[in-house]
Each structure stands twice: as C-alpha cells, then as structure tokens.
Amino acid sequence: MFEPMFMRLALVASVATGLSLGVMGVYLVIRRVVFLGLVVANAATLGAAIAQAIGWTPELASLVAGVGAAVALGGVEASSRVSAESWMGWAYAGASSFTVLVLSWTAGGSADTLHLLFGNVLAVQGANLVALTIVAAVIGLLQLLFARRFLLVTFDPEAAKVVGVDTRLWSLTLNLAIGVAAATAVNAIGALSTFALLTLPAMAALLATTSVRATFVTAAALSTVLPSLALAISFYFDLPAGPASVALLALSVPFAAVCTPAVARAKTFVLMRAGRRQTTFNARCRGSASDLRRSECRQQQLRESFPRCERRPQA
Amino acid sequence: MHHLFPKRLAMSECVLRGDRLALGFGDRVLFRDLSFEVARGEILGIVGPNGCGKTTLLRTMLGLLEPLAGRVERQAGLRISYVPQRERIDRIIPVTAIEVVLMGAGATAPVLRRIGSTERDAAHRALELLGIDALGQKLFRTLSTGQQQRVLLARALATDPDLIVLDEPTVGMDVASEATIIEFLRDLNRRRRVTILIVTHLLPIVLNFASTIMLMGSRGILQGAVDDVLQEDRLTALYGVPVRLGVVAGQRTLVVERGMGLNV
Asked: Is B221 in a helix, a strand, or coil?
C-alpha cells in the first residue's frame, strides 16, 4: 500500500502535520479559542488564493497570512460590546468569502476552491514536505522545552503575570507557533483538514484522558494515526484522502465521549468486585493471630477465588 | 483618598505604594488623586459595595491594569503571590492539585530549568501546611470549593511570597472552611510576617481579621484601623441600609436592621 513514492510522501506529510497541529490544537481547545484555528486556516487559504491569482509563491503568502491572523486575533481581547469570538467569526466570514471571490476571478475557480479547501496530501512535493517536517520538529522542541510556561499562561495568566512571567511574550510565541503550523499545513492538506486536526484530536483527548501529559500524547497519537489510517482507506476504497481523514477524526470525538465513561464504569465495577473480595477476605482473616496466618489465609482466599490458577502438586 | 491617620511610610516599611493614581478604563475615570500604602506585615482588607471599583484597584496594585495617571511603586525584590477568584481559573485543563502548586514554584524558576526535587518538596510542604497533602494527585476540577481555594493558597505559598493578594477568597464556602482559611492566613501573617491584602465584599470577613481597612465608596476611599473606619453611620450611608455593629463572644459582628426589604 505504501509502496508508491507518493504514498510514502503523503504518509510523512500526514504524520508531520498531525504532530504539529495535534499538539498546538490542545492549547487552542483549552484556551477556548477553537475558532482561531478556523480563522488561521482560512486566512492562510486566502493568502494562497491571492498568491495564486497574481502569480506569487502560495506557500509564502499563506504563511504570512496565517501567522498574521494568529498574532492579530490571538491578541484580541473581549470588549464590553463585542466578544473576541465575534471578531474571529468576522475574520472567518471575510477570509472565506474573499477566497471564493479571488478564486472565481481566476480561471478554474471551483477546482482551485476544492483543492484549497480539502488539499491533496497525495500531491505533496519535496520542498513542502521538508517545510512540514521542520515545522513539526520545531513545534516538538518548543513543546518539550516550554510546555510548562505555555500551560502556566493558559491556566492562570493573571497570577503568572503577577509573579513576573511575561505572559504577552509567551502568548505571542504560542500564537506564532499555531499560525506557522496551520499555514504550512494548509498548502498540503487544505483548510478543512487543518482545522479538523487543530480541534478534533484535542477534543477527543480531553474527553478520554485525565492528565495533561496523557492529553498531549493522546492528541498527538490520534492526529498522526487517524490521518495515516485514512490514507490507507482512501487507497483501498478509492476515496478522497482529506475528507476521509476529517471523517475519522470527527468519529473519534463521539467515540471518546461514549467509550470513556463506559470504560470508567467498567473499571469501577472491577475495582468494586475486587474490594468486595478484599472485604470478605479481611473479615475472614480478622481473627488471625499472626501475619503468617494472615498470609496463609490470603493464599487460601486466592485459591478459592481463582481455582484454575491453583498449582498442581508435582509428581 | 483620605487617611484617618495620615502617614507616609519609608519604602523599607512599605511594600506597595500608590501615588496620586487615576483609575478607570478609557474615558471612564473611577477614582482621581488616589494614594495608598501597604505596610510590611499588615493585613489590609479592601471592602466596599458591589461595583465600587475594588477589582480595578486590585488589578492596578498588581500591575495587571495601567493607571490612567500616577504610579504604583513596589518595594525592590518584593515577591507577590496572587490568589484569584476561583471562577477565573479554567477547569478544562486536567491538572492535578500538585501540578497547580508546582505551577507556582515553576513560575519563578528559570524557563529552561526542569522542575526538581526542591520545587516538588516545596509544593508538598505547601499542601501539607494547608492540610491537603492527600489530595495532591486529585484533579483540581474535581475538588470542592474549599479544597480548590486551599490548593490556590498552597500555590501562592510555594513561591515563598512577601505579599499575598487574595480576591474574594471565601466566596461560596461554608463557615467551617471559611474559618479555617482565615485562621491559616492569620497564622501565616503572625509567624512569617507575610503581608496580606484581601479584597472582599463580605464585611464580616475582614471585621476580625484585618489590621487595616480600606473602605471604598463612590465619593472616595478611606484607610485606617478597623474601628476607626468601620462605623455605623458611615456604613449606613455607604450601603444605604441601617448597619449595626456589635460584639458577640469577643468578636465584632455586623447586622443589617430588619424591615429594609425592597418595596415591590
């Protein structure tokens, strides 16, 4: 399946975009600014569309537009009249409509719109792949070195500022990283997949896990494994890779929402059963005179509980 | 600003000072020509009716809001810890209580330094001081109101502060939790001489806790000793209801006379 070179390149691109967007997406979701991901993806698309129309390099234009949007809108604070979310809605509507207008002005508008919306990971070329890999490595490094600071300014920015942390600098760094990751991904996988990778793995991870580290690891795992799986599915069933990837990511969210409580209930049930056995055992052993006796009693209890595990006497 | 006992402390005795401040947002000025001093080792209670500008003053004191005019001076090397209202803390992030406390210790450490045993020990000691060491591995969002407040206090303590600023620390707590927190803060102030600044709309909290009161109203601010500032006629005029002060079991109490319900 991954024999053809284009499939291998697509796999590397999927893993690279998945890693960078999956990790950055967790920050977007926990900061409650998922719209920022949508805006950045669409701003980068608009940049690419304009560049395509006037003959510039789409990758560079989308990077400038995506990073610009992330920095400008990431710093917008809610006023008493309009929320920050409303500004993001405004930016999204504007970027999307202008993208379609620009593309319909140029020849082959509808085909280009589809390409920019869903991308084509199977058509990723060398230079783009290198850029995606470098971005993934840089974001991985940022996460390794500065996750503590990123979490601090996300969890309680005011208390962080009071003790002397430059919250504006760290928020800007975070927004820059999100902008760069989204803008480089848009050219390979399209706006929809970029937005999906920024939000859905983080959502599923937050639903399924109960620790910060597990959330990041799960989000990164989902955002790399599911798009790779989607590549295989699209290869076998002749389906478009982008929508297949988004569909799998979308399914992961209700799966996490439904399965996590079920697993927790099952775990509680097993623990309660074990607890009941332990209580019975304690009640039986309460009268034991010594630890030795207690130990014997426990062995007896274990033998009764698990008769199949009883060791047969050797001949 | 009006001091009942005008004072101008030397900066060595004063941890925080505001000089001729104008506070507000944009064109809206809440206070003009406001000055204050927070003396080392004192417990200052900032009180006043809802909407009088307590939070604006607090945010300006902490450097979270720039004053429209004037300036706030901090003593050189002053370590401040801020315990915000619990509602301001995001509960989506699945952090444990010990991780929250470590955020306090980690915030003051160099960026690239990994959290080591020193910070972990400090965090555990802080949790232990507040009697919640056993909750260290519990998720912060699953803790009760009182427990969350204690974790936030432990986070503040982990930075070994000279000044702790608390914003409405006892809102939503039952009387037992409230008394425990207040007793802990009083002990902290007495033993370590940590300066405490507490902002609350609940007057009874500060009546027996604060050494100095800053009473905020629409016409200005009054700062002085508790008995001098909190007087029945003044509170009655400020709140618009007949307030009576008394003493029960050696503690100051405050009641509002009956029959003051709204006519509907």
From this structure: strand
* Contact between A158 and B94 using a beta-carbon 8 Å cutoff: no
Contacts of A78 in chain B (CB under 8 A): none
Residue appearing with tokens 């805006």? A39
- Residues A177-185 have a mean pLDDT of 92
Interface size, chain A vs chain B, as Cβ–Cβ contacts under 8 Å = 79
**pLDDT for residue A309:** 40
Q: Is the model's pLDDT at A248 over the cut of 80?
A: yes
Residue with tokens 């060595």: B12
- The rounded distance, in Å, linking the Cα atoms of A191 and A45 is 7
Sorting pLDDT into bands at 50, 70 and 90, what band is A48?
A: confident
Taking CA B142 as the corner, what is the angle to CA B140 and CA B144, rounded to the nearest 5 degrees? Answer: 90
Three-state DSSP at A170 gives helix
Write phi, then psi, for A119 (nearest 5 degrees): 65, -175
Rounded to whole angstroms, what are the CA distances from A310 to A295, A299, A301, A302, B126?
16, 10, 11, 9, 49
pLDDT tens sequence across B170-228: 877 788 888 888 888 999 899 888 999 999 888 888 888 999 999 988 777 888 888 88
Interchain pair A162, B64: CB under 8 A: yes
**More confident: B221 or B97:** B97
- Chain B interface includes A143 (CB < 8 A): no
**Which of A104, A90, A105, A106 shows the shortest CA–CA distance to A42?**
A90
User: DSSP state, B141?
Assistant: G
ipTM, two decimals: 0.82
For residue B152, which of B179, B170, B134 has the smallest C-alpha distance?
A: B170
Over residues A154-172, mean pLDDT: 89
- CA–CA gap between residue A50 and residue A39 (Å, rounded): 16
Looking up tokens 């070994």 gives B160
Neighbour count for residue A37 (Cβ, 10 Å) = 26
**Structural element, H or E, at residue A205:** helix A167-208
Within an 8 Å CB–CB cutoff, is residue A152 touching chain B?
yes
Contact B106 A148 (CB under 8 A): yes
Nearest CA in chain B to A32: B92
Rounded-to-integer distance, Cα B100 and Cα B148, Å? 10
Q: Where along chain B do its domains lie?
A: 1-78+197-264
CA distance B109 to B114: 9
Query: Mean pLDDT in chain A?
Result: 83
Contact criterion met (CB < 8 Å) for A164 and B108: yes
Contacts of B254 (CB under 8 A, 6+ apart): B203, B204, B207, B230, B235, B243, B244, B245, B246
Tell the CATH topology of B1-78+197-264. Rossmann fold (3.40.50)
Check residue A107 and give its pLDDT: 61
Contact B64 A148 (CB under 8 A): no
The predicted-structure confidence for B9-33, as pLDDT tens digits, reads as follows 666 788 999 888 888 877 778 888 8
Residue B3 host element (H or E): strand B2-3
- The rounded distance, in Å, linking the Cα atoms of B158 and B154 is 6
- Residue A146: strand, helix, or coil: helix
